[in-house]
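Run log // design_07
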C-alpha cells in the first residue's frame, strides 16, 4: 500500500474509533469520512462495509483484552485474575460505547471477529472463569454468558454519561454476587 493510503487508512481508523467510542455503532460512514478529512470513497476503499471498519477497530481492542487476560492469568491468583479482568473489561466497555453495544449483542459478534483475527477472546475469558471456579472463588453455576450479561449491565447505567464511581459500585456488587457462596459471608 502506498504511504498516502496507509495514512488515510489510519485517519479513518482513528476517526471511526473516536466516533464509535462516543456515539456508538449508529454513526454514519459519511460522518466518519468527514472527521477523517477524506471522502466516503476512501473509507469504502479501505473498508468495504461499516462492519468491516468496526471489525478493524474491535480487533485492536480485542488484542488488548486478550493480552490483559493472559497477563492476569499468568501473574495473579485465579480470583484476582478473574475479578481484575472483569473490572478492566467494564472500564474498556464504558470508554468505548460501540464496544459496549457490540458486547450487548447489537448486531456485531465480538467473539467471531476476534476469532477471524486469530484471537480466542471467549476462550481466554472462559479460562479465567474456570480457573476462579476451580479455586473456589466463583460460584460453580456461573457461565461465560452470565459474565457477559453482567458486563453489559455494568456499562448500561452509563448511557447518559460516564459515572466511574457508579461503575465501580456496580462491579463491586457483581463481584460479591459472583463469589462462591461460602466466600460471600
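design_07 sequence
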Amino acid at each position: 500500500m502506498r504511504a498516502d493510503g496507509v495514512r488515510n487508512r489510519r485517519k479513518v481508523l482513528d476517526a471511526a474509533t473516536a466516533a464509535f467510542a462516543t456515539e456508538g455503532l449508529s454513526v454514519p460512514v459519511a460522518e466518519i469520512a468527514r472527521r477523517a478529512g477524506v471522502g466516503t470513497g476512501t473509507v469504502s476503499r479501505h473498508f468495504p462495509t461499516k462492519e468491516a471498519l468496526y471489525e478493524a477497530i474491535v480487533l485492536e481492542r480485542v488484542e488488548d483484552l486478550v493480552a490483559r487476560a493472559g497477563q492476569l492469568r499468568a501473574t495473579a491468583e485465579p480470583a484476582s485474575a478473574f475479578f481484575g479482568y472483569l473490572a478492566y473489561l467494564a472500564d474498556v466497555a464504558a470508554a468505548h460505547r460501540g464496544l459496549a453495544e457490540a458486547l450487548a449483542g447489537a448486531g456485531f459478534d465480538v467473539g467471531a471477529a476476534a476469532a477471524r483475527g486469530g484471537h480466542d477472546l471467549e476462550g481466554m475469558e472462559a479460562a479465567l472463569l474456570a480457573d476462579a471456579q476451580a479455586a473456589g472463588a466463583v460460584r460453580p453455576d456461573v457461565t461465560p454468558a452470565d459474565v457477559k450479561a453482567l458486563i453489559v449491565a455494568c456499562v448500561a447505567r452509563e448511557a447518559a454519561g460516564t459515572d466511574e464511581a457508579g461503575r465501580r459500585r456496580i462491579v463491586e456488587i457483581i463481584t460479591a454476587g459472583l463469589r462462591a457462596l461460602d466466600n460471600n459471608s
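The chain has two domains: 1-48, 57-183.
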